[in-house]
Structures are given as structure tokens and as C-alpha cells.
Design brief:
Largest sheet: 9 strands, mixed
CATH architecture of the largest domain: 3-Layer(aba) Sandwich
Radius of gyration: 26 Å
Number of strands: 20
Shape: globular
CATH topology of the largest domain: Rossmann fold
CATH superfamily of the largest domain: P-loop containing nucleotide triphosphate hydrolases
Strand content: 15-25%
Number of domains: 3
Mean pLDDT: 80
Low-confidence stretches: 53-68, 98-127, 143-159
Distance between the termini: 45 Å
CATH class of the largest domain: Alpha Beta
Number of helices: 24
Length: about 575
């Protein structure tokens, strides 16, 4: 069987496994992976990825926090990064058969860490086995720095990591609200402001360790949770070296604190009955957190508020909303902002409602490259919304000829469905749509959507197979990925692209009536914001904005035959 080199590369670059682990997983020699890695520069990409995602240790110290405790975390992260780098180097030398002088970091007997660099000069096979063993052992033992055996109160994790430490490793704007008990809390703002990691990730983990709180975490559709909300919490657990404190059940989408039994339960609002019936194993849900809350309907929100009942009256119930702002016409703006919010300020505070706006400037861990991208945004709407975190007022929308309608019955009897797939490269998603078309009435019916981030060919095929069976899927023009899908039984074909194909496809869709099933949250979100470009002065330019348009592209691919036939005719 052919090796899925795309999957191997993605897992190596993202740090999922070592070369030996990947070799065993994919049935290929580690030396072959090493040669391919060297030829294609995988290690440099892996190092760059790690630098983007790992916290810079010197940024962790915050003057008003407990310096001694914060330094302990700094030492852990700094040493952990160094050890992982040494392990990667040693593994590469093992696989390529070259020997070098080794450097091993050893732990001292006292704290703060007494780090010594000890050169080891031995034969190649001794370097590979003994050096790696020492490095791996040291990396494992670092847990003792931040997780001492004795704890002052609560579970082991809660006693070891005080609120001073939590605040030290959080961005300051969010650290101020680590223990905020107000019943409705809204954290919104621009892209890359760090709100999800801080509030969804770090604060949730802290609360579970303390005990007394169960979280229900929701998004509009269940399929989007695993790659977003679930991963944010797992990342926060791992970053604080707390994996031993939690049981993470990815199939059931439940995370449980081992010491006290309190849980985070994840649910999509596309499965209403499940949301109504799920309960935590201990107590009741005290916190409901809605990620990407602008995707959620007002009715969904009202249903969720009914879940915040019962339990210990001493524990305050909280509804927390996280989102990037979209339009002032949205129900969230009307419900919580209208008549209260002063756009010249970044905070609204009342006894029963707290609203905080943050931007990329509030995220001290953001790379300069990411800052530059946001600051150099040229479209007025996207600059206002995604860079400055302000509620948007759209210019000229591309599609206004659509409405939401339950299409489940029509989809069941439609024997001539069309399928479109737009390939995404991280952080953009793969986007799939399944549609119907009534040529006589000029009506488009969007029945279903599917997609995901960072999917390999096998995952994409498994997603598509039960939906399309042997039907044709018209795809973005990426012949390598198309071939990968065809090898896995998907009838994937490239879309026809050429000069003017996007503009003509858009114009064709503008002449149709478009109906969207309410389950297609991503399609609906893009339809609401897909617009023509504007310059910084608000002048409309004659071309669509080339961002947040993945499902819009998939829609054009799905209906390509109709679009081309009309153009030729």
C-alpha cells in the first residue's frame, strides 16, 4: 500500500509523533522518513511550528503575580523546550546514521533548577540509546517542578497550581477575570486575541481542578467541536503538564478531573435532544460556554439558559459567550449591546453582565508575523471586525437572494444531488457541500455541509464516503489531493477553472434563489458576510473578498456543470 506522505509530514511537523513512531504507524523505515524529511526540510518547518505555538518563557513573568511560582513555570517550559529539541536532534542522528557530540541537561537537587550541560562523547549506538534515555527521563521528571507531591488544599492539581500561577501564564486582560462570578459574561473581539485559549482553555481547566463546577461547552454543530473547543482544553491541560489529572475521552467528548469527578461535556446544538438529556456525573452544569456564539440562533441560546438550574445555590451559574463580532443586526448585539455598549470603551461592567473586547494587541504570545497580517488588512470591514474587534457594518454583500429553510424532506427524495469540495490548508478548513438544483425554477438547495481542519486524505475520505458513495465530487484543483481521494474510493474530479470563472460563477448564483438547511451553519455564516472588497476608505471594488469563502467556493464547484452550460449557451 502506498505511503500517505502528506499525513506523515503533517504529523511530524505538528509534533504528533517521532520518526520512529511514524515509521511504525505507516509501515515504512525510519531511515526513509529521515531522508525525505531532510530533502524537504521538515525539521525546519516543525521547529517553526513549535516556535509559533509554544509560549516564550520570558513573557510569562508578570510583575503583580507571585514571582516565585511563575519562575517555576518558566523554568519548566524553557527546559522542556530545550529537551525536546535535543531529543529531535538525537532521533535525526539515529535515523540518518551520523554521530555527534551530545549535550544533556541534568536537573539539580534544589529549586530553582540547577541546570548543567554535560558533554557526552561516546560511540554512535551508545549516544542513541543512552542519550535519548537520559533526555526522555529528564523531560518526564520535570512534572515535579510544577506538580509537587504536597498540596495545600483541594485536588493535587489545584493545590500545586495556585491562582497566582494561573494569572501569571494568562494574558493580563483575561487573568483579571479568572474568578469572575457574574452570571452572563461576554468575551469578544478581533482575531488572535487569545480569548478562546484563556477563557475556554485555561480558566475551564482551573475550575475543574478546584472542583464544584461542571461545564457544558457548545457550538452550533457538533462536528466542529473536536477540532476547536476540545483541542483548546486538551492543549491547556498539556501546556500546564496536567495530563495525569484528567481523563480525556475523545469519542464521548467528555473531559473528567480524576481527583473530584467534575467534568467538561461537549455538545453541538444541531442535536437538540442530546443537549436536553446530557448531565454530568457529579452535580449539575454550573457553566455553559458557547464558542463562536454568533453562529447560534436566539432560540438555541434561550434553550441553553434553561440548563442552568438546580444544584448548590452557593455556586453561581454562568453563561459565557465567545465570538468575533459580525454585524450589528445580530441578535447578540440587540440583546446585550444595544443601549449599553460604548464603542469608545473596551469594557462594560454591571452586577449581572460583563462584556470585554480584546484584540491581537492584548495577546502577548502572538508572533510578529501574525501581528503584521492583521495590521496590514486592506479591506475596511475585515479591518474593523478582525483587526480592531468592532461590530461590523457591511458594505455590498454578494448574496442577498437566500433564506434558511428545513430541507430534510426534499433532500431525502432528491436523486440528483451535486457535491463540491474546497481543499483547505491549515488553518483553513476543508469545505464540502451537497446541493440540489431545480433548473426550471432556478432554485438551489443546500442540503448538507461537512468539513474539518488539518484532515489527511484518509480522514477526508471517511467523511465523504457515507455521504456521496460513488457520486462525483467536484473539487478544488489540487491533483495530488484528488488522486489521494480517488485511491480511497472517492470519485473526485477537478473543477474547471480559468479567467473569469469566479466572477461568472458568482453572477450565476446571484440569479438563482438559494435555500439553505439550518444545519449548514458554516454556509450560513459565509453567506451572511461574503462581500465585495473595499479599500480603507470604504470604496467598493469589483471582486469578492478572498477569505472566509471556503463553502462559497465549494458551492460553485458543486454547480459547475450548470454554470458552464449557461455560460456556453
Amino acid at each position: 500500500m502506498a505511503v500517505d506522505w502528506m499525513a506523515v509530514r503533517n504529523e511530524y511537523v505538528s509534533g504528533v509523533g517521532s520518526m520512529r513512531q511514524l515509521a511504525a504507524k505507516y509501515g515504512v523505515d525510519a531511515s526513509t522518513i529521515a531522508r525525505k524529511s531532510k530533502a524537504e526540510g521538515w525539521q525546519a518547518v516543525r521547529r517553526e511550528q513549535r516556535n509559533k505555538t509554544q509560549t516564550k518563557s520570558q513573557q510569562i513573568i508578570v510583575e503583580k503575580q507571585s514571582i516565585a511560582e511563575a519562575n517555576r513555570i518558566v523554568a519548566l517550559l524553557r527546559t522542556s523546550d530545550k529537551l525536546r529539541e535535543k531529543i529531535d536532534e538525537a532521533a535525526d542522528q539515529l535515523n540518518t546514521g551520523t554521530g555527534k557530540r551530545r549535550t544533556v541537561l541534568m536537573m539539580g537537587d534544589t529549586q530553582p533548577l540547577d541546570l548543567q550541560e554535560i558533554p557526552i562523547s561516546v560511540k554512535l549506538d551508545h549516544i542513541d540509546r543512552q542519550g535519548l534515555k537520559q533526555l526522555s527521563s529528564a523531560l518526564h521528571d520535570l512534572a515535579g517542578i510544577v506538580m509537587p507531591q504536597e498540596s495545600s488544599s483541594g485536588s493535587a492539581g489545584a493545590g500545586a497550581i495556585t491562582d497566582g500561577i494561573w494569572r501569571a501564564v494568562m494574558n493580563e486582560k483575561y487573568a483579571d477575570h479568572l474568578t469572575d462570578e457574574r452570571p452572563t459574561q461576554i468575551f469578544f473581539g478581533g482575531s488572535s486575541s487569545g480569548k478562546s485559549y484563556a477563557i475556554l482553555g485555561q480558566r475551564t481547566v482551573r475550575d475543574l481542578l478546584r472542583g464544584g463546577r461542571n461545564y457544558l461547552i457548545c457550538r452550533k454543530t457538533g462536528r466542529t467541536i473536536r477540532g476547536s473547543c476540545y483541542n483548546e482544553i486538551v492543549k491547556a491541560i498539556s501546556r500546564m503538564d496536567l495530563s495525569e489529572q484528567f481523563q480525556c475521552n475523545k469519542s464521548d467528548m467528555v473531559i473528567t478531573c480524576r481527583a473530584n469527578g467534575y467534568q467538561v461535556v461537549f455538545a453541538g446544538l444541531d442535536d437538540v435532544e442530546k443537549v436536553k438529556s446530557i448531565t454530568p456525573q457529579t452535580g449539575v452544569f454550573t457553566d455553559i460556554l458557547i464558542e463562536e456564539a454568533t453562529e447560534v440562533d436566539y432560540g438555541d441560546y434561550k434553550q441553553l439558559t434553561k440548563r442552568l438550574r438546580g444544584g448548590d445555590s452557593a455556586v453561581g451559574k454562568r453563561m459565557v459567550l465567545l465570538f468575533n463580532p459580525v454585524l450589528q443586526e445580530h441578535w447578540i448585539y440587540k440583546e446585550f449591546f444595544a443601549g449599553r455598549w460604548n464603542d469608545a470603551e473596551n469594557e462594560y461592567s454591571a452586577p449581572d453582565l460583563f462584556i470585554l473586547r480584546t484584540t491581537y494587541k492584548d495577546n502577548r504570545y502572538l508572533t510578529q508575523e501574525d501581528r503584521d497580517k492583521l495590521e496590514n488588512e486592506t479591506d475596511k470591514y475585515y479591518y474593523e471586525v478582525y483587526t480592531l474587534g468592532r461590530w461590523g457594518v457591511l458594505g455590498k454583500l454578494i448574496y442577498t437572494n437566500w433564506e434558511i429553510r428545513d430541507l430534510s424532506e426534499r433532500a431525502a427524495r432528491d436523486a440528483a444531488c451535486r457535491n463540491g469540495l474546497d481543499f483547505g490548508f491549515w488553518p483553513d478548513p476543508n469545505a464540502f457541500v451537497r446541493v440540489g438544483y431545480d433548473r426550471k425554477a432556478r432554485e438551489v438547495f443546500i442540503y448538507r455541509e461537512a468539513g474539518g481542519n488539518n484532515q489527511d486524505a484518509e480522514q477526508m475520505a471517511n467523511m465523504l464516503r457515507p455521504i456521496v458513495h460513488r457520486e462525483v465530487v467536484r473539487c478544488d484543483v489540487d491533483l495530488f489531493r484528488i488522486n489521494e481521494l480517488c485511491q480511497r474510493g472517492i470519485t473526485a474530479v477537478p473543477a474547471v477553472k480559468g479567467p473569469g470563472s469566479v466572477s461568472y460563477g458568482v453572477e450565476w448564483l446571484q440569479r438563482q434563489k438559494i435555500y439553505v438547511d439550518p444545519s449548514c451553519a458554516s454556509v450560513i455564516s459565509e453567506l451572511r458576510t461574503y462581500k465585495y472588497r473595499e479599500d480603507r476608505d470604504g470604496n467598493i471594488l469589483p471582486e469578492p473578498v478572498d477569505r472566509d469563502n471556503h463553502w462559497m467556493d465549494a458551492l460553485r464547484y458543486a454547480l459547475e456543470e450548470e454554470i458552464i452550460a449557461t455560460r456556453i449557451g
